[in-house]
């Protein structure tokens, strides 16, 4: 008896999952890219900045050195994950979020040798970028 009920529940769950995926695909759910950069600084914080902000400019163009290998994650206000990315050697990262997502998001960033960052902000949709500043643990990196 127990096996039969488990089988019924499993089939219902799979059926609901397939239906949900079909609805998601048919709804035209598209994403947009949120770009950002990770740098070292005196406090661990994430904020929205204009792309011409000095701290977002690459090191080759006179900006500060970027920090690579940092895991950056964006969460909904209910705690669901929107996306995650790892910063490249120049500190740059890209997050993919639903086009219609306009609520505040919690952005977290962490990596070896740095204090974790957790900030709540509206993810930019107008060409601005997310700037993540991470404070090194005592003794530097």
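^ Assign residues to that structure.
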């Amino acid at each position: 008896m127990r096996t039969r009920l488990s089988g019924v529940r499993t089939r219902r769950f799979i059926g609901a999952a397939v239906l949900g995926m079909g609805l998601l695909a048919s709804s035209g759910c598209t994403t947009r890219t949120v770009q950002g950069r990770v740098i070292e600084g005196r406090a661990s914080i994430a904020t929205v900045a204009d792309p011409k902000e000095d701290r977002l400019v690459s090191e080759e163009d006179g900006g500060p050195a970027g920090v690579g290998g940092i895991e950056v994650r964006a969460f909904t206000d209910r705690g669901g994950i929107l996306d995650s990315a790892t910063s490249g050697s120049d500190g740059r990262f890209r997050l993919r979020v639903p086009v219609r997502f306009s609520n505040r998001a919690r952005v977290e960033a962490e990596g070896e040798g740095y204090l974790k960052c957790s900030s709540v902000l509206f993810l930019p949709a107008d060409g601005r970028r997310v700037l993540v500043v991470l404070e090194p643990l005592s003794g530097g990196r």
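The chain has a mean pLDDT of 83.
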